[in-house]
Amino acid sequence: MRLPCYKWGLNGRIYVTQDWVRWVLQELADEVVFVGDWSRPQNETSYRDAVQRLQGASKTMPYSVLVSTKMTSGEPADLRSQMEALWRQSPVNEVLINVQSNEDIKSAEEFLAQMP
Q1: How many CB atoms sit inside 10 A of residue 80's CB?
Q2: I need a surface site. Which of 39, 55, 78, 116 has the fewest CB within 10 A?
Q3: Could you read off the pLDDT of 38-51 as tens digits, one per residue?
Q4: Whole-angstrom Cα distance, residue 35 to residue 97?
Q5: Report field, pTM of the whole predicted structure over 0.85
Q6: In the 8-state DSSP scheme, what is residue 52?
Q7: Do 41 and 25 sit in the same domain of this protein?
Q8: DSSP 8-state secondary structure symbol assigned to residue 76
Q9: Is the Cα dihedral 105, 108, 113, 116 positive or negative?
Q10: Domain containing 23: what range?
Q11: Nearest-angstrom CA–CA distance, 91 and 93
């Protein structure tokens, strides 16, 4: 089945992808994964804001956060600085690490070895 939103223009499709709170309320999702370039200054409150929106939805929903060895622009990203940026905003319960190469795997392993 093709959803009608795919017939919409770009702005309509962006609205749908950003309306994840409605997906939670309508029980169309069973978990939320927050994705972002967490160490960038423009995202200094993004994670906290997203967690607050989820908690304000009056539904208990598991959530996790995705950190990556590369930013969405393709630039290398430091896992530690991303985690520090997240911890400053809100507690982090579950983390997924996105790796895209053998070098990324090594970087993720080194990062995880330093975690308490």
Answers
A1: 13
A2: 116
A3: 888 888 898 998 88
A4: 11
A5: no
A6: H
A7: no
A8: B
A9: negative
A10: 1-29
A11: 6
